[in-house]
Design goal:
By secondary structure, the protein is mostly helical. The protein is 60% helix and 0% strand. The protein has 4 helices and no strands. Helix 2 packs across helix 4. The longest helix has 14 residues. The radius of gyration is 14 Å and the shape is flat. The N and C termini lie far apart (34 Å). The model has no long low-confidence stretch (mean pLDDT 81).
Length: 80
């Protein structure tokens, strides 16, 4: 059975609620954005990231890569 975007969101929100987190602040996009940010931070190739994330436009992925670089050398980066 294929997971839909709604079923992924429901699963994620269920786990957030069980952990005592505000489930309304998390969604399926949070997982996708987190993956891309982490992959970019670790130096993954843009084409590989796009293959995994399903993005067709590299400009979208580059936006996440810029966000990842904001944390490089940040005083709190050891806590992320």
């Amino acid at each position: 059975m294929r997971l839909t975007d709604r079923s992924v969101a429901n699963i994620l929100q269920g786990y957030c609620a069980a952990a005592g987190l505000d489930a309304s602040t998390f969604g399926a996009h949070s997982l996708r954005a987190g993956y891309i940010t982490t992959a970019a931070e670790r130096g993954a190739d843009l084409a590989r990231i796009m293959d995994q994330s399903g993005h067709r436009d590299p400009r979208t992925v580059v936006g996440y890569i810029r966000r990842a670089s904001l944390f490089k050398g940040h005083s709190g980066s050891g806590f992320l």
